[in-house]
Amino acid sequence: MAFLRSLLGLAVGAVMISAQGNTANTTATYTNPILWEDLADLDVFRVNDTYYYSADSFAFSPGAPILKSYDLVNWEFIGHSIPTLNFSDPTAYSLEDGQQAYVRGVWASSMRYRPSNGKFYWIGCVDFNQSYIYSASDPTGEWTQTGQIATCYYDCGLLFDDDDTPYVAYGNTNISIATLNSDLTAQVSTTRIFNGTFYIEGSRLYNINGTYYVLNTQPASREWTLKSSGGIFGPYEQQILADRPPSGTPGSGYPHQGGIVDTPEGDWYYMPFIDDSQRAAGRPQSTCTHSGPRNLEGFVVAEADE
Ligand SMILES: *[C@@H]1O[C@H](CO)[C@@H](O)[C@H](O)[C@H]1NC(C)=O
Ligand SMILES: *[C@@H]1O[C@H](CO)[C@@H](O)[C@H](O)[C@H]1NC(C)=O
Ligand SMILES: *[C@@H]1O[C@H](CO)[C@@H](O)[C@H](O)[C@H]1NC(C)=O
Ligand SMILES: *[C@@H]1O[C@H](CO)[C@@H](O)[C@H](O)[C@H]1NC(C)=O
Ligand SMILES: *[C@@H]1O[C@H](CO)[C@@H](O)[C@H](O)[C@H]1NC(C)=O
Ligand SMILES: *[C@@H]1O[C@H](CO)[C@@H](O)[C@H](O)[C@H]1NC(C)=O
Ligand SMILES: *[C@@H]1O[C@H](CO)[C@@H](O)[C@H](O)[C@H]1NC(C)=O
């Protein structure tokens, strides 16, 4: 049974730090939050010994910043999945003719690695209308637009399944999973997998040893898990993953809308972000946090912070 170490606590935790190309292990500590940056709606995944983090960038171009880490605590910026915000309204995105596209950029998107061809993919819905796909052989670039699908995969989570089929979980309240064609240029089919009874969004999709999980946030305080042992299309049962966990940042909102990732040793971590309107003008500053042991299979929840 694996442990899900969520990244939420006030507590100082221990984490294994392993340097690139260095087999030596050293034990270090970390405190939450681990990042003081506006890097909301994150997706996190691991390829071998390297963790990648993809985030929102809203109005900014280039879009969809990518960070890299070897220990989930120390992160560095390595590039962007979207070289230029142009999408279907390039005049507005390039601020020509007095036009603008403020906040019509990148949010709640997903980035993953595809083992079958060694490429990285980014997918996200823009303007509640079109979904765009960008791809790169090296996450530091060059990224190119490789697809556009005339469907909004709202708050999407990408999964390359064990048989290499690309799936995208998306939606709010009601959650669907679309099957894409092999080169991610078209939708093959889409299936409603869950009819919600309250508002959820921010899907992240995982196949963990043949069990499928869709993480969703109930903004902006709880993280829920849909779990299916009967295949990717369900049936799914909904259980709480984290309920108003502590943030480590007095006065902030609750950590929410993140992803889970395992270490090479099999420990699981949950990485959410925080809205911190106390410390930023305009859009809330967001941070990303860590803490201590959770049980993935049992859906044991973080303690409420109130
Ligand atoms: C690092 O330490 C962990 C825990 O002690 C151990 O399981 C793992 O094998 C070590 N990794 C390396 C590369 O030495
Ligand atoms: C990950 O490790 C496997 C096995 O060593 C290797 O074939 C693959 O190229 C590595 N992937 C990346 C992205 O480094
Ligand atoms: C946006 O720019 C990319 C090159 O970065 C180009 O491939 C794509 O066609 C452009 N899209 C639009 C809508 O102009
Ligand atoms: C959505 O995109 C289509 C192009 O596929 C375009 O014709 C339509 O105007 C767009 N709708 C909105 C509301 O932007
Ligand atoms: C969810 O689906 C139900 C039908 O099962 C529908 O009545 C409801 O309007 C949908 N809600 C949303 C937010 O799409
Ligand atoms: C969702 O609701 C629709 C309409 O009521 C129904 O047809 C569908 O079977 C439901 N799907 C799930 C997964 O519950
Ligand atoms: C998945 O299977 C591997 C190998 O059997 C096991 O080590 C690991 O704990 C399993 N992971 C989970 C989350 O159950």
UniProtKB/TrEMBL annotation:
<keyword id="KW-0378">Hydrolase</keyword>
<keyword id="KW-0326">Glycosidase</keyword>
<comment type="similarity">
    <text>Belongs to the glycosyl hydrolase 43 family.</text>
</comment>
<protein>
    <recommendedName>
        <fullName>Beta-xylosidase C-terminal Concanavalin A-like domain-containing protein</fullName>
    </recommendedName>
</protein>
<dbReference type="Pfam" id="PF04616">
    <property type="entry name" value="Glyco_hydro_43"/>
</dbReference>
<keyword id="KW-0732">Signal</keyword>
<dbReference type="InterPro" id="IPR006710">
    <property type="entry name" value="Glyco_hydro_43"/>
</dbReference>
<dbReference type="InterPro" id="IPR051795">
    <property type="entry name" value="Glycosyl_Hydrlase_43"/>
</dbReference>
<feature type="signal peptide">
    <location>
        <begin position="1"/>
        <end position="19"/>
    </location>
</feature>
<dbReference type="InterPro" id="IPR023296">
    <property type="entry name" value="Glyco_hydro_beta-prop_sf"/>
</dbReference>
